[in-house]
Write a structure and sequence with these properties.
Number of domains of chain A: 2
Pathway (chains A, B): Cofactor biosynthesis; pyridoxine 5'-phosphate biosynthesis; pyridoxine 5'-phosphate from D-erythrose 4-phosphate: step 3/5; Amino-acid biosynthesis; L-serine biosynthesis; L-serine from 3-phospho-D-glycerate: step 2/3
Cofactor (chains A, B): pyridoxal 5'-phosphate
CATH topology of the largest domain in chain A: Aspartate Aminotransferase, domain 2
Number of helices of chain A: 9
EC number (chains A, B): 2.6.1.52
Strand order of the largest sheet of chain A: 2-10-9-8-5-3-4
Order of helices and strands of chain A: EHHEHEHEEEEEEEHHHEEHEEH
Largest interface: A-B, 76 and 77 residues
CATH class of the largest domain in chain A: Alpha Beta
Number of strands of chain A: 14
Shape of chain A: globular
CATH architecture of the largest domain in chain A: 3-Layer(aba) Sandwich
Helix content of chain A: 25-40%
GO molecular function, one term (chains A, B): O-phospho-L-serine:2-oxoglutarate aminotransferase activity
Radius of gyration of chain A: 21 Å
Distance between the termini of chain A: 44 Å
Largest sheet of chain A: 7 strands, mixed
Oligomer: homodimer
CATH superfamily of the largest domain in chain A: Type I PLP-dependent aspartate aminotransferase-like (Major domain)
Structural class of chain A: alpha/beta
Organism (chains A, B): Novipirellula herctigrandis
Chain lengths: ~375, ~375
């Protein structure tokens, strides 16, 4: 493809896309997918046309798994699975595998819209206790360890590490007894920073924030947790089936796994790993939050400063008229998809891994100008 | 992209791909996906990077739905859903929505490996009766209406219209009382021929045979069946959630839906609809089956002639040595992925919609030569 100004499919037609998910992907990954889309070298067909049981795809799947394993140093005590159904299906699969049909209690910390959905599904499956719920402050913070108490005999402790709608993020995992498996919805910050996976029983992420296109969900699960599922659980919902079948118990979403593997390799080879990615992500977030803080009579951040998300910057403007103009003028400068979720209002700038530093700089610069002209 | 002999990603490097699924896709669709992959015209980003709630993607999803509705003339009495989890999750969702928690009985006709898996999952959910099982003849046929009896009060009658592993296909839907919803796994023949959708309660297909890439499943469901689900069913498994949410109750697999929409448009605009597609598919199947019948001392078809699949042609050779040579020599002539499933053995040539007539001609010609040289 040649990049010409008149070709609407060219790279020159791309904008800075602050969408909350599906979200921006690395351009180099998109280019590789594009080049190989019609015919994967050596395969004689598109990746989409190849049997998932053949060597070409199984190598791709194992390559994606190994990239994730090596980024986090994940041991063989864990299975790394590629599933369908998004976080929504995980909301049910986790309690269905761990507490359906037994008398254990799972505990939940709720710090935003995704945690709220997760606990709603979990209550259908067994005994659930909410041990912290930030709804009374409209989900503007995450708790400190002293704010909640985890039972030593809990089936698991569940939390969402980054709430995309409210823009709050746990800087550290919650405090949790070693007897209790910690379960984390990391849909919007897995792959954005280093983590000690050994702290977790299950940590999972739908791909469409930092890991690739919608349609595949990465589930990292400690193998001892595979044996708790009731026998009559639907086969697709049973983690053990997917672990035993090497994520090919049924046909996996092959294109999405292929793309995810390329994103993981980009993170390793082009970015230099998770610590390097975290440094860039912190720099991007700092640029935007500094403008909010320097113009605090104009921009109102939603999250309490020590709970701010590095992934989703949420803030409001003095009134709806200014909000509308902000979105419109930003779009005219190729800063797209900045409108916040209706439940919080205002602006949400999602600055996941694939948003380049230049995008955050352009947004910060626009915000400064807009405040000085309208403040 | 320029098609040069030295470019391994060029169209000239493509082979005839007889994979059973994921399977061949129309080249014109792959080319469109490729051209628009980096930047969807007017969107400033790849389709993969766009919010599913935005106008661009919702138009694409509705376009895909409308193409399927118009190909089959589907009325508003039916919802057309795009789900994740493949046929495997449908095996559970169907009984979970229709018989979990009630005392009704669902009946199953089992004519191959997929029906067998489906009834296995269904038995976890409630009362199930197998009213026909072809396993004793190694699934080489489908029953005639006189071979089974459907109860008037059955919750539903389930069958798989085309068994990909054994290569048997129902020419007509089974006989079923009007009081009983007919449920069909049409994963491997939906979109390959005209059907009267009004005969069905639910008819569904994973995309990776005739409809697009793996990762999306089309479910066509009569709306009155949306109200039977128990209240505590996992949200993702509840058809009503997806119908009420316009297939966006959670994030859909946006790339796969995009590709599926393009395949449906190809079927309409390039092929001329389902009757035209059926005519081509019958012509392709006839070419291959005629070689089998003309060389019946050499090639042994698996399916009884009146139950032969138009999608998957299954046959064996006189011995394993010849079978191995057949696969190898075919591959050397760019006829790929012909090895049959281990449970049936022999050869399986999958000739779904996107396999061009020329591919079936090339296979038939190779088979003639091979038989005359080795017979």
């Amino acid at each position: 493809m040649s990049a010409s100004a008149t070709d609407p499919t060219a790279i020159s037609s791309r904008v800075y896309n602050f969408s909350a998910g599906p979200a921006a992907m690395p351009v180099s990954v998109l280019k590789e997918l594009q080049e190989e889309l019609l015919c994967l070298p050596g395969a004689g067909a598109s990746l989409m046309e190849l049997s998932h049981r053949g060597q070409v795809f199984t190598d791709i799947l194992h390559g994606a798994e190994n990239s994730i394993r090596s980024l986090y140093g994940i041991s063989d005590d864990y299975a790394v699975l590629f599933l369908q159904g998004g976080a929504a299906l995980q909301f049910s699969m986790i309690p269905a595998n761990l507490i359906r049909g037994n008398d254990k209690t799972a505990q939940y910390i709720v710090t935003g819209s995704w945690g709220k959905k997760a606990i709603g599904e979990a209550k259908k499956e067994g005994n659930i206790e909410s041990i912290y719920d930030a709804k009374e402050s409209n989900f503007d913070h995450v708790p400190s360890p002293g704010d909640y108490k985890v039972r030593d005999d809990a089936a698991y402790l569940y939390y969402c590490s980054n709430e995309t709608i409210q823009g709050v993020q746990f800087a550290q995992a919650p405090s949790c007894p070693t007897s209790v498996p910690l379960v984390c919805d990391a849909s919007s910050d897995l792959l954005s920073r280093p983590l000690d996976i050994n702290k977790y029983g299950i940590i999972y992420a739908c791909a469409q924030k930092n890991a690739g296109p919608a349609g595949v969900t990465v589930v990292i699960i400690r193998r001892d947790l595979l044996d708790h599922a009731p026998a009559n659980l639907p086969g697709y919902m049973t983690y053990k089936n997917h672990a035993d079948g090497d994520s090919m118990w049924n046909t996996p979403p092959t294109f999405a796994v292929w793309a995810l593997g390329k994103v993981a390799r980009w993170l390793t080879d082009d970015i230099g790993g998770l610590a390097a990615m975290q440094a860039v992500n912190e720099q991007k977030a700092k640029l935007v939050y500094e403008v909010i803080d320097a113009n605090s009579n104009f921009y109102k951040g939603h999250a309490k400063p020590d709970c701010r998300s590095k992934m989703n910057v949420t803030f409001n403007l003095p009134n709806d008229e200014l909000l509308g103009r902000f979105v419109k003028e930003a779009a005219s400068q190729d800063l797209a998809s900045l409108k916040g979720h209706r439940s919080v209002g205002g602006i949400r700038a999602s600055i996941y891994n694939a948003m380049p530093l230049e995008g955050a700089e352009a947004l910060a610069s626009f915000m400064k100008d807009f405040a000085s002209k309208n403040g």
